[in-house]
Amino acid sequence: MTEKKYFILKIKRQDDPHKAPYWEEFHIDYKPNMNVISSLMEIQRHPVNAIGEKVNPVVFECNCYEEVCGACTMIINGRPQQACSALIDRIIQKNGIDKPIILEPLTKFPVVRDLMVNRKVLFDNLRRARAWIPVDGSFGLGPGPRYDEKKRAFAYRISRCMTCGCCAEACPNFNAKSDFMGPHVFAQVKMFNMHPIGSMQKDERLKAIMGHGGIQDCGNAQNCAKVCPKNIPLLRSIAELNLDVNLLALKKIFKW
Amino acid sequence: MKLKAIVVGGGLAGLMSTIKLVERNIDVDIISLVPVKRSHSVCAQGGINAALDTKGEGDTVDEHFYDTIYGGDFLANQTPVRGMVEAAPEIIYTFDRMGTPFTRTAEGLLDLRRFGGTKKKRTVFAGATTGQQLEYALDEQVRRFEDEKKVHKYEGWEFLKAVIDDDGICRGCIAQNLATMEIRAFRGDALIIATGGAGVIYGKSTNSSINTGSAASIVYQQGAAYANGEFVQIHPTAMLGDDKTRLMSESARGEGGRVWTYKDGKPWYFLEEMYPNYGNLVPRDIASRAIHKVCVDMGLGIDGKNQVYLDLSHLDDDFLERRLGGILEIYEKFHGDDPKKVPMKIYPGIHYFMGGIHVNWEHMTCIPGLFAAGECDYMYHGANRLGANSLLSAVYSGTVCGPAAANYMNSLNHIAAEEEDLLFERYLQAERDYDGMVRKMDGDENPYLLHQEMGELMTANVGIVRYNKKLEETDIALQNFMERWHHINMVDQGAYSNQTVMFVKQLKNMMELARVITLGALRRNESRGAHYKPDYPDRLDDDFLKTTKAFKTEDGPRFEWEDVDTSLLTPVQRTYGGNK
């Protein structure tokens, strides 16, 4: 590829939630098949910055390394994505080895330290939308319902959402100052509302997303779908729920 | 005063235990390193076994039971396994009602596929992300209980110690906040450890970074027995990576994938040739040993490296997309090639711990009030786990452990909330002192490099093939690592969210458990399931049809043997149509 044996990580760091952020660069010895997580692990093993100073290792979140848990989401060269599947070879191939790879924490959530943020609000918003099927109990009640495989296959696409926060990061309406639930929530509501049992509580979930911070606050910027790592049908879910919500509102007005 | 349980770990076993407790009117505190929705259960891919027989093959619970016991080389206690396979169909139905999007047939019924070590289609699945889908179903149910204030989640907290009173009864635990670093006590009338496997001990594995085995090691060090540590499953098909070995699901073979390499210039389907009855669907221990033999002993790995092909390229694109989409996408993302067109390159990787915390059939340890469930227990898989039985055992153990813990708690004379403060303060002080000591470590060892060295040693010597001489050397090296641990340098001086402090504590616990695994392997002079010694190639039931139990002492682990329950099936030799 090139004779230079290291590449550069330029990382936006922050010591704790109250300190000011700062930038720091690291030179990472190049090996084939690395990704952003394995590069950050190199810093743990050799915590020295680009000018040779001994520094604290960079703090980051990760867990599965297989892009299925959602933990390692951060902004890499301007785009929110999982660090485990951000392959160094591919980035270098595109940008060259001299151009620093820029790592930043997500901006829509409070920073804990360095690249780690607190995304609790994503899970809390699932609770606001009552994103579950209220089963009678976990004990045996016989077989579940039949489910049309075509509908099931669509629901499965939504069910792969790992609450990683990419969609919320890209959404202009989602931020610390607004109550907007975030695109991921509406896809989940769509999924539960189309389930043979879940559809029995359809109106409850629709009511939950009709209020403050609900679906009417979506500005239709459509950024969410562009950054979703799992290609979850966010836009279709939001569009169809908009219809359902309007229908429910009409029902209320005319007492159908 | 109301009873309260503490569940450590938010994977399938922990969440199912929680649901069962809440349904019995007991409040639960969940302590989890990560938001529970990110637990390692999400990594399970291929499916979950239940004898539903929707394919007209005449599958039965009896056959599921036989395959599980036989696949585990008769080391599993048979009564609890019988309970598990009997409960399996109803467990699937419950998840189905909760909304898990299991893949369907044209009639809208649950579809099934085949997995290793069985001749029937018995595996229910949701694409190739079944663990993720099951975990999310329980996560949603627990979120509902959270909404009803019956569950409180402490996400981003690490378990440090069980609190055990002077009568030897567990009354709660000490845990630490990973952001603020606060250490505090949690009072609980039962403590359930549901913290999964310990792949991180081996450095690279298919496990997540939280799977250090630290919690299991802590309760072992506090007096609970650790059973069958030497039985570590090595998954035959993993992608080699710089940071980990990524799992490539057994379902790839279940759906028709073939394993091969070149011999004399032509493709050699060695599993099909060696094991004509089961072919590519021999159990994992057997497939891993065959791949090891072909690459290491015969030097026939692809491109001269330790790797062989897992080939799906002969199968129909649409079929593959629908049945295996999730994992094909992962391979393409991480490797670059499209497995629908080009065979995947794979090699065995450390995957699953059949051994774990010793519990009785109600999932309680020898310490009253301390329970264990899921991969961190030792109960359901004997010497080798069959594919798609792990999701089942994780869930099933929760359905046993939760109610058993509730019964135990209801029988208590006094509850943890009434326990004296002194007990908890004593434990708190000890953990704060230890934390302070770790923060001040100023030797010259980098903890991450020390860990890397240990992982490489364990992988080389306590993996697919084991020799007593190497095991002895490994144990000496591990003791040396434990000495070097004291000379660690605290490379992170930060006061807030200091991950290195937590890692150094985990590392010590990993070393304790590594010795249990290594010495357990040394003592077992036979070959059984995943434990294979070329110098002792046969299974020796007279001496070793026994559960290994390790107890912590000042001088390292002390071992005992325990008889295995073989009350339902008489052990027979295990073969899959070839030599063992």
Task: Describe the fold and architecture.
The complex is a heterodimer of chains A (256) and B (580). With 256 residues, chain A is α+β, with helices and mostly antiparallel strands. Chain A folds into two domains: 6-117, Ubiquitin-like (UB roll), CATH 3.10.20; 120-254, Alpha-helical ferredoxin (Fumarate Reductase Iron-sulfur Protein, Chain B, domain 2, Orthogonal Bundle), CATH 1.10.1060.10. Helix content of chain A is 34%, strand content 13%. In chain A, the strands form two sheets. Chain A has a five-stranded mixed sheet. In chain A, helix 4 packs antiparallel against helix 6 and helix 6 crosses helix 9 (234-254). The mean pLDDT of chain A is 96. Among the domains of chain B are: 236-350, Flavocytochrome C3, Chain A, domain 1, CATH 3.90.700.10; 422-563, Methane Monooxygenase Hydroxylase, Chain G, domain 1, CATH 1.20.58.100. The model of chain B has no long low-confidence stretch (mean pLDDT 96). In chain B, helix 2 (61-71) crosses helix 3 (78-98) and helix 12 (447-461) packs antiparallel against helix 13 (468-485). Chain B is globular and about 70 Å long. A six-stranded antiparallel sheet of chain B has the order 13-12-17-16-14-15. A five-stranded parallel sheet of chain B has the order 6-2-1-10-19. The longest helix of chain B is centred in the C-terminal third of the chain and has 25 residues, at 499-523. Chain B has 580 residues and is α+β, with helices and mostly antiparallel strands. The termini of chain B are far apart. At the A-B interface, helix 1, helix 3 and helix 4 of A face helix 1, helix 3, helix 4, strand 13 and helix 9 of B.
